[in-house]
Amino acid sequence: MRAKRKDPGAGNAGAEGFATSENGRDSKPIPKKKLAADSARANGASAPAKPEIRITAARLAMVKNGYLPIHLTDKRPLYRGWPDIVADAEMARRWETEWPNDRNTGSLTKFTPAIDIDILDPNGIEIIESLVRERFSGTGKLLRRVGKPPKCAFLFRTDEPFEKLTLYLWAPGEPTPEKIEDCKHRIEILGDGQQVVVHGKHPDTGKPYTWSGGEPWTVARDELPPLTAADAQAFLEDARKLLVEADWGVFEVKKREKRTAAETEDHYPLIIEIGEKLWGEPKLNGDDYRFGSKGSKGVNWRTGIWYDFETGEGGNQFDLLKKLKSSGGTAASPAEPKPVFKAGPFEWIEPSQIPKRQWLYRPHYIREFLSLLFSSGGKGKSSLLIAEALAMVSGKPLLNINPEKKLRVWYWNGEDPIIELQRRFAAAIKHYELMQDDIGDRLFFDSGRTLPIVIAEDEKFGTLICEPVIKDVIATLNENRIDVLIIDPFVACHRVAENDNSAIERVAKSWSHIAEETHCSILAAHHNRKSGSEGATVDDGRGASALRDAARTARSINTMTDREAEKAEIEPQEQGFYFRADIGKANLTPPAQYADWFKLVSVDLGNSDDGWEGGGDQVGVVTPWSYPVADVPRITPFDIARAQAAIRDGGPWRADQRSTREPWVGIPIAQTLSLDLTSKIDKRFVADLIRDWLGAGLLRRVDGVDDHHEARVYVEAGNAPVVPPTTGDKND
Fold it and tell me: Which domains, ranges and CATH numbers included, belong to the chain?
């Protein structure tokens, strides 16, 4: 039953941008210009921007307001069991530290269903949004969310969960789709087993999700309009009629109850039939077919992707067919499903008998693991990797690191031609005065222009791992007894979306599998998203975070900053030849004098064809370089903790060292570290420490007033220092 609308001049019906008649059914949209202005205002275009609520605060408020929040990567939860999570305040508070890369927040739609108007056409949006407001205004607070305009969604409440409902559409003038996946528009009523993004940034636009009418962290769930399964079905039927009257097309999805795969071949792909033979009769849930009593196995028939939420397995229909065959059945003659795996019993092993980790080139290359090197373009990444490759091949400490032995290295560059690689290697060999015997038969290098290595591709039904390519890589590594494989850059070895966490995770895990299968170390070089930025860390790698999470070690390259150059007395025109490589996250980045520094030097290949001295190709070669170190103590995390304790015990401490009324925060730090502030060197060192610790969050600035009621800036202790992880080896 439709709720009657108020007179537009009397209530919020008109304020929402729609004029209605008394009976509510003859609702007509107001002029498009006014509607567009109202929509823009609802999206924050003309109204003053609200202060953005912090991620944990939003999640805690949602719990308090009766919602079921979950943490998301972009628009999806990439972990098992998410539909059954019932978050409390303690759980929601932990997510920001335990899942730091999940910066978006969703709301489970089991008890908070959502009408998601996934339509790209403004006229279609106007029709359906008008119907939403006509039907539900006056029954509760209508919360409207916008992620990628003109699409929008509305939240509701229910005490009796229902399954997802979907209407597949095409707009006037668009060709009639032959398959359901060709429909560009849809209306979804998300229910039990789904979620809707409510907070964070849209992965396509990079802009925050916006709300009008309220937000889940300001409006309680009980204030939302009620929506039952019958209401949802009736709404879709009315939406269908209105759209058909406006010359929209509706794709009729045939129900599959009591129908075989053969009878519905056009809407019942092979992957559903395979799943049925493995797990029994499925139940349709929106785009997903769910199998098992708890629906723990799912197949999306639009994308052709399956996932087992209990085991964490997933893939395309070929992967599922392999699973069926391994269970003893075939597509023609199913067998009883067999356990995919069994839990391994613990076997007692003396600690001294456990094989030691095999570091090949500390601390960046270790057998059977994937390592990463992050850098923006043109900062010396490839030159550094070539120097490291030659050091490992020759067994010499070219960069002041001793390889475990003379290693066999394969360097694959996916961008440069083979002749350019020859120039780079030749320049490094010449600079380091290596001989042919130093290289032997242990070095291999190839170009992606002549030997492409693409181990994964995006296809219509999801990510396809190219098993034949992986087998060839494994065979090549084994045949040549390769110890180290360098992939430069990572983006050249796949053709999947860089921001797709699920796809990148499969690519990264494939390389980890190759490393384990061949007992070698694999390093992948990857670009930062902050091209040319200063102070980039491994968290700034371009695309999905799943790549970084899959690696054993990770480094980031940064060129010398202006301040670092000034302190080291490097001329501005020479500054670009110096760079540093830092391990780990930003709060583990060492001060400049303790970082691993390198310098690019130019080497003439001597290949001039006109007899001119110095007329050959000039090629950059990476060399080790030491940052000038003052005679001051090296600071450990324990020193930082002691300094923080001294700051907490006294104060207030001023940020400005020129302060005469109140003491400078450098005083307790200097006392803790036994430094003399009357010494210019020590005072400058303490000032640099304060700057670095503020940047790392170890200290924080706070605003306050002094005894004379004048505004001042003070400094307090911040986050506890992070102790760098070790492998337990005395050489770490």
Answer: 12-251 (no CATH), 265-326 (3.90.580.10), 367-625 (3.40.50.300), 637-717 (1.10.10)
